[in-house]
Structures are given as C-alpha cells and as structure tokens.
C-alpha cells in the first residue's frame, strides 16, 4: 500500500526527506550497527542531500548505494553519483569504501552484473530513495518497458530519458528494503503523481518493500 503526503513547498519536502533519512539511520544503526541507504538520482533529492551535508550523524556506520546510474565516465557532471558527492557525500565523513557507485562506465551489461554481485552481499537495504519522472519512471525503470520482478540489477539500453544507456536496480533489489521513500516535486510531475495515486501500473506500484512505501510530494506536484 502506497502512502502519500503532500507538503507545502520544495523546502519543506527537502526538510521532511532529510529528517526521515536520519530517523531511518538511527533506527537501523541501533538495531544492526549499520545503515544501508540507496540514493535516488536526478535533481529532486539534491536539496535533501544538501541538508544532510549540514548535520552530524554516525556517518561511519552509513553504507551508500545508488538506485541507478547513467553510463557516463566517472566524474561526469550528469552522473547521479557525482551529483550526490558534490551535494553531500564529499562533505561528510562516510568512509569511501562504504560508498558504492555503480560502475556504469563499464557499459550496461557488465555494470549490472558487477553491481548485482556487490549488492547481494548487502541486502536488505534499510531505506531506498526514489524519484518519479514525468512519464512515471523511477530509477531507470520505465513504464511500458519489460519489468522483471526477480531482477536485482538491470541493464538499460534505450532509456527514454537521456542518456539511453543506464544501469538500474531492479524490482527485486528495490523491494529488498525496509522502506521506500519517493520524492516528487514540481508541477511537471502532477500527471505522473496522479497516475500513481490512481493505481496505474507504474514501476513504483510493483515495488513491495517489507515496510512503508511513502511518497512525499510538494503542493506543485500534488495539485
Ligand atoms: C535519473 C534518475 C531518475 C529521476 C527521475 C526524476 O537517473 O534520471 O534516477 O529516475 O529520479 O527522472 O528526475 P528529477 O528529480 O530530476 O525530476
């Protein structure tokens, strides 16, 4: 069951998202001594990432993964891991060995195989962050494209959102999570969010986390 919360504006959305990430971290670290977090790509989560760069946390116990990555060279400004590093990860003392970028520069197939081997050692995730595209995609799982319920990591060769070559966590990895938090901001997402609320078969609707699947959206997206 998907829960939806509408917040007044992007600032409140970023603040609520950062608070929920920190709360999930405290719970996981208290229970298991580790917090395994999957980051969303795109622009929406960056405001929350910038807030997380300003707080203190038990960073040495955080383990960071990525929900998807574009097949671009390391350090490329359009890579999701690069955006997260600039906004947050390079500004807090998470041990570098505990930040796990997707080796998307190896190409979709090889990178998906390598990342699947890695994440098998770290499942279940405690929290997965996702965005929502205007067409209803999340991570690099696109509506109307084949979705394998058993896939841990999938290669993407013809993504409708450029660049076409990507790597994405699959439905099984996204569901092997304590909880999933989807961040949606802006008028441009209004239709996609309405489709999700109406029960359309979007990728998010196929994710079955062990706990909560919560969509946090600002008023511009909620309509
Ligand atoms: C990507 C992201 C993608 C993103 C949505 C929303 O690599 O592009 O992982 O799934 O979350 O496209 O993007 P915005 O937050 O930029 O609108």
Blueprint (SSEs and pairs):
Layout lengths: L1 E6 L2 H23 L2 E5 L6 H7 L9 E5 L1 E3 L9 H8 L20 H13 L4 E6 L22 E4 L9 E4 L1 H5 L1 E8 L5 H8 L15 E6 H4 L1
Parallel strand pairs: 1-9, 2-3, 2-5, 5-8, 8-9
Antiparallel strand pairs: 4-7, 6-7
Helix pairs in contact: 1-2
The structure holds 6-phosphogluconic acid.
6-phosphogluconic acid binds next to strand 4.
Structure at a glance:
By secondary structure, the protein is of the alpha/beta class. The chain has helices at residues 10-32, 46-52, 80-87, 108-120, 171-175, 190-197, 219-222, and strands spanning 2-7, 35-39, 62-66, 68-70, 125-130, 153-156, 166-169, 177-184, 213-218.
Features:
binds 6-phosphogluconic acid, 6-stranded parallel beta sheet, 30% helix, alpha/beta, 3-stranded antiparallel beta sheet, 223 residues, 7 helices
Question: Would you kindly provide a written description of the structure presented here, covering whatever features stand out?
Answer:
30% of the residues lie in helices and 21% in strands. The protein is α/β, with parallel strands linked by helices and 223 residues long. Helix 1 packs across helix 2. The radius of gyration is 16 Å and the shape is globular. Bound molecules: 6-phosphogluconic acid (6PG). 6-phosphogluconic acid binds next to strand 4.
């Amino acid at each position: 069951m998907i829960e939806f919360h509408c917040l007044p504006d992007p600032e409140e959305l970023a603040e609520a998202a950062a608070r929920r990430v920190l709360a999930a971290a405290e719970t996981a670290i208290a229970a298991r001594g580790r917090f395994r977090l999957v980051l969303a790509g795109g622009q929406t989560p960056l405001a929350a990432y910038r807030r997380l760069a300003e707080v203190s946390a038990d960073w040495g116990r955080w383990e960071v993964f990525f929900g998807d990555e574009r097949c671009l060279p390391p350090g490329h400004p359009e890579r999701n891991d690069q955006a997260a590093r600039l906004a947050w990860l390079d500004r807090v003392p998470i041990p570098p060995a505990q930040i796990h970028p997707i080796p998307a520069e190896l190409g979709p197939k090889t990178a998906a195989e390598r990342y699947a081997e890695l994440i098998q050692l770290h499942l279940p995730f405690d929290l997965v962050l996702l965005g929502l595209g205007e067409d209803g995609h999340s991570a690099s799982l696109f509506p109307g494209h084949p979705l394998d319920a058993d896939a841990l990591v999938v290669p993407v060769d013809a993504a409708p959102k450029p660049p076409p070559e990507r790597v994405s966590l699959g439905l099984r990895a996204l569901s092997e999570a304590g909880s999933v938090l989807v961040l949606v901001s802006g008028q441009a997402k209004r239709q996609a969010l309405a489709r999700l609320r109406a029960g359309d078969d979007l990728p998010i609707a196929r994710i079955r986390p062990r706990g909560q699947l919560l969509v946090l959206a600002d008023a511009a997206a909620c309509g």
